[in-house]
Amino acid sequence: MFLGALVSCPICEKRKAVRFCPAKGERICAVCCGTEREVTIDCPADCVYLVAAHRYEDEHQRSLPADTPLLDEKLPQDAIHMHQEMLAGLAFAAAKFCAAQPSAADPDVLAALQALAETYRTLRSGIYYEKPPQALLPRDLYGALASFLDEAKQQGPSRTGSPAIKDFEIFYLLVFLYRMGLLRTNGRPRSRRLIEFLRSQFPAAQELKREESRIIVP
């Protein structure tokens, strides 16, 4: 009999430890691997069981609950297409921030995007009300994205000829990124599916961890 199968799982201390967990450096049982993955275990992206689980998730797209924040907003497609450069810049800024914060997880990114979208929604009514996330990491990301947007608006229309962007259009871009993020993640508290997606789209973010803040066109 395989020796690893004789050892109890260090998490539940009940079932046999049969799967090697690279995050813990030891074997755990299959049940704990499935239930604690990206919940209490910080799984590395190359874990074979995590990769298999993500492959299964890709084949079974999850739907968003009816009470999802900002789900009732109708997004005009022309606003999204017209400002793809700004949309890419926002996604790049988020990817660069997360590259410098190894502990960042998808819920941090989603919390920052939702809060910033809510802030820009208040601008449409003419009453500015800002409420950044309370947790430190998403609050810092909120600030980084807000600074990016402020700098971008100060620079005015881009050299590519894109029209100047209005606050309500920025709101639409933030809502679009937020919804995309909800569909890219799997809802687990330590999931980094969204972050890995952003990094795959903008690999240069890995080399810009310490670079002074500036507008970057991917």
Short description:
By secondary structure, the chain is an all-alpha fold. 49% of the residues lie in helices and 3% in strands.
Radius of gyration: 20 Å
Largest sheet geometry: 2 strands, antiparallel
Q: Which strand order does the major sheet show?
A: 1-2
Query: Which structural class best describes the helix and strand composition?
Result: mainly alpha
Spatial separation of the terminal alpha carbons: 54 Å
Share in helix: 40-55%
Strand content: under 5%
Protein model, in words:
The chain has 218 residues and is an all-alpha fold. 49% of the residues lie in helices and 3% in strands. The chain has helices spanning 30-36, 48-59, 77-82, 84-99, 106-124, 136-155, 167-184, 193-201, and strands at residues 19-21, 26-28. It has a two-stranded antiparallel sheet with strand order 1-2. A hairpin with a 4-residue loop joins strand 1 (19-21) and strand 2. Helix 5 runs antiparallel to helix 7. The longest helix is centred in the last third of the chain and has 20 residues, at 136-155. It is elongated and about 65 Å long. The relative contact order is 0.15. Residues 1-5 and 208-218 have low confidence and may be disordered.
